[in-house]
Amino acid sequence: MTQQKRVLILLGMPGVGKGTQAQRMAEHYKLFHIDTGQSLRQEIASESDLGKEAKAYVDKGELVPFELVMKVIKAAMVRIPENKAGYLFDGFPRNLSQVDGLDAVLMELRLTLDSVLYLETPYEILMDRLAYRVTCPKCDAKYNLKLKPPKQENTCDACQSELVTRKDDRPEVIENRLKAYQEETSPLVDYYDKKSLLQRINADQAIDVVFEDIRQHVDKFFKTSDTMVV
Question: Active-site residue numbers?
Answer without folding.
Answer: 18, 94, 133, 166, 177
